[in-house]
Design brief:
This protein has a six-stranded mixed sheet, covered by helices on one side. The protein has a three-stranded antiparallel sheet with strand order 7-9-10, covered by helices on one side. It has a two-stranded antiparallel ribbon with strand order 8-11. β9 (269-273) and β10 form a beta hairpin. Helix content is 41%, strand content 15%. It has helices at residues 38-41, 49-54, 60-71, 112-127, 178-197, 233-248, 295-307, 316-325, 332-359, 364-367, 369-384, 386-408, and strands at residues 5-7, 75-81, 87-93, 98-103, 145-150, 155-164, 169-170, 257-260, 269-273, 279-284, 291-294. The chain has twelve helices and eleven strands. The chain is globular, with a radius of gyration of 21 Å. α6 (233-248) packs antiparallel against α9 (332-359), α7 packs antiparallel against α8 and α7 (295-307) packs across α9. The chain is of the alpha+beta class and 409 residues long.
Length: 409
């Protein structure tokens, strides 16, 4: 019988965006990040019991048994990875592989079509050369399966997948350089163009119009403005929502549609240092928010999150935009709305984190970590103003792409 080394989860104080995105350091490789769903944010008076009853909580030995039964792999080490509604475990096997055992919460397990398309998208992107996770098939040839498990609330069905464990560290912990940000922009644009080619009989399930985190649903934040009473952030958020409603929304007909990752944040991009100690992208993870959206949404989301840990956040947008436009140039209207869309994503993150504290007050320290940088950056962007920020972004992007062209020629 194999000896299984059980490793405790490593929760250190470095940036947990609990509910919104758990910022805990993975020992190495792909940390899967889970965001809460719409239902969680629209039930402000509900207690945590219904959420907890949906959440799987297998022990490490149970996870090892499941991997053996379904994949005929022998676990030598099992380590918990942070997650909210799902359960993620890093599994090292005697056969030499490393994997993430992902057990979906019972609520989302009732929507296998969405998970199937998410999984298909990851595999499709990998086949096209992007660094996403593979899904291992069971001994009976399944990429996912429902398992009956009793986690203390009676027997429930949980959807299970075994994903490859990608090497690297989260980009949030790597030193940012213009080249690395340029690569992020390129990878994001390339990913969306590949997703545009994807065909699947159930692709329509990605038309997730009620997805809280869609930038198309920014105005849902109006329902939570009372949470900001007395906070200096409230006026800033109201300004952004006003601009979104009156400046951005009327221009949506000019935005080009596509399937987007929807959550390309600084935890979902993994990087590795090469021989010259320059960091290169080694992984793109967490497709839980994939949906039909717009190219410019993907770009805005990416810019916003890459600002969070950068010492000069305003400079981030230009390098990412340069990389993006080297693959897929924005049209005039998309470029004109980019500033307000970036700020809209800041507002989503900050307001929904504030609401998350009302659901999980015991985790306020971690929940509000992102706010320490996010509030400052949002207010700084508003103070500097659209015209000046765009001047920095567009000039930086033009200069970088000009240099790239000169090198090629």
């Amino acid at each position: 019988m194999a000896v299984i080394r059980l490793a405790k989860a490593e929760f250190q104080p470095r940036a947990l965006k609990f509910l919104l995105a758990i910022r805990a350091p993975a020992p190495q490789g792909a940390l899967l990040v889970k965001r809460t769903r719409l239902a969680t944010f629209h039930t402000p008076n509900k207690n945590n019991m219904s959420v907890k009853s949906n959440t799987p909580n297998l022990s490490q030995s149970q996870a090892a048994e499941l991997v053996k039964k379904r994949y005929n792999l022998t676990a030598s080490e099992v380590r918990f990875l942070p997650a909210w509604e799902d359960q993620n475990l890093h599994v090292v096997t005697e056969e030499g592989g490393q994997f993430v055992l992902k057990i979906m919460n019972s609520k989302d397990s009732k929507k296998p079509a969405v998970v199937e398309v998410q999984t298909y998208a990851m595999n499709f992107l990998r086949e096209k050369g992007l660094p996403t996770q593979n899904t291992l098939k069971t001994t009976t040839g399944q990429v996912m399966f429902l398992e009956d498990i009793d986690c203390g609330h009676g027997l429930q069905k949980f959807l299970v997948r075994l994903l490859t464990y990608l090497p690297g560290i989260q980009i949030a912990k790597a030193p940012f350089s213009p080249q690395l940000l340029y690569d992020v922009g390129q990878s994001a644009a390339r990913m969306d163009l590949v997703l545009k080619e994807m065909k699947h009989p159930q692709l329509s399930v990605l038309q997730r119009d009620d997805l809280t985190w869609s930038l198309s649903n920014v105005l849902l934040l109006e329902d939570y403005m009372n949470l900001l009473d007395g906070h200096p952030l409230q006026a800033g958020v109201r300004t952004v929502l006003h601009q979104y409603k009156n400046y951005v929304a009327p221009k949506y007909s000019a935005f080009r549609k596509c399937v987007i990752h929807g959550d390309l944040n600084d935890l979902n991009v993994l990087v590795q240092a090469d021989e010259s100690k320059a960091y290169k992208i080694s992984g793109i993870i967490d497709f839980g928010e994939i949906h039909f959206g717009y190219y410019v949404h993907e770009l805005a989301i990416t810019i916003m999150y890459m600002m969070l840990e950068h010492p000069k956040p305003i400079e981030v947008g230009g390098a990412i935009l340069a990389g993006w436009e080297s693959i897929f140039p924005l049209n005039k209207t998309e470029k004109d709305c980019l500033f307000w869309l970036v700020l809209s994503r800041f507002c989503q993150t900050l307001v929904l984190s504030k609401h998350a504290v009302t659901l999980q007050p015991e985790n306020e320290e971690y929940l509000m970590y992102t706010s320490k940088n996010g509030v400052r950056i949002l207010l700084e962007l508003l103070k500097v103003g659209k015209a000046q920020v765009e001047k920095v972004w567009f000039k930086t992007a033009a200069d970088l792409n000009h240099k790239k062209t000169e090198i090629i020629n």
